[in-house]
Amino acid sequence: MKQIEYKIELVRGYILVNDDRGSKVLIDTGSPLSFHADGIVALGGRTFNVRTSLMGVDDGYVTDNVGTRIDGLVGMDVLGECGILVDVPGGRIVLSHPTDGMTRVPSSVEFGYVFLDMDMHGRGTTVIFDTGAPTSYVSASFTKGLVPVDHVVDFNPSVPGGKFETLIFEFPATFAGKAFTMRAGHLPHLAQALTYFGVGGVVGMELLKQRPFLIADGGVWIGEETVTSCGHED
Predict the structure, then answer these.
(1) Range of the domain at 146
(2) What's the number of domains the chain is made of?
């Protein structure tokens, strides 16, 4: 597959791009599978046949909850074949990006999910790396005794009614040698899933806004940290 760059549109922290057919799709490494209203995703000069819905979630559901027209969601069944650089500070994604000049971090791609190692509140843990997660979510053990600093309304199809409200906590975290303040909440019904995967949380934009990330060759590679933010946020 040839290397092709796509401009990112950020809407409420969700990463959207126009595919090769002009369809607006959400880039979501937190989903093992993809779907599209037409059953087709076109990226990197290739056409992928995908589902038209996923466990009751379709383009209409995502459109209603994100707040802008979205034709489909691209998950790891497609992204894992392409190899994808997600460069939120640079406002782009790049398919088939080489690993040259990038650094591999402790990570793996298994069962259609991307796993990263990091420290949260002084404890080493593994998290699911989810480009479709504007808000990060962690096990309650990482926020025990903390006072919430904010709250957000989010949506998840596994939650009855779809939408839910969660308190947001702040605590120290470290990834790839960089210390930062992590903001995260608790996702209803997440505890059982975290235990199943043996992970401490689901992390997305909290890391993505720091630097470029490349998912390729069964793992994750990172570029240099940047303070520039060029993504278009609606």
Answers:
(1) 103-211
(2) 2
